[in-house]
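Table 4 source record.
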Amino acid sequence: MTTSTAVNYTPAQESAIISRLAHVTDYAGQKIAVADLSVALEKSVRSVSAKISTMSRSDKGVSFHKKPANVTKAGAKVQSKADLVELIADRIGIASDKIESLEKATKNTLSIVFANLISPKDREELAYLIKEKHS
């Protein structure tokens, strides 16, 4: 007994996808193209997007543009408050679960605290230098 799989996209539909995406160079353009293709092919946006993703992994000549990563106004990567609490915990040398309630503070406050902390190693070095100076 042979099993056959349902073909969701015909070769003609695949070539329509390839030709429509041939000149798309960014995520926003791809989003518009996917919406246009879903109407033209009478498929859902999610289905067309999944097909493009599948075709980009195979050797079909289609590239799938990923959504750009979120960045701050200054261009830095966006950090969550949980990430900042982990950085603070690492900086002071304790487990992050002991200070997880710090996540309730504002992100700006956490950034200020992190920027003004010194690591245990630096603290020891500073204590040594102060001791040397006063000896």
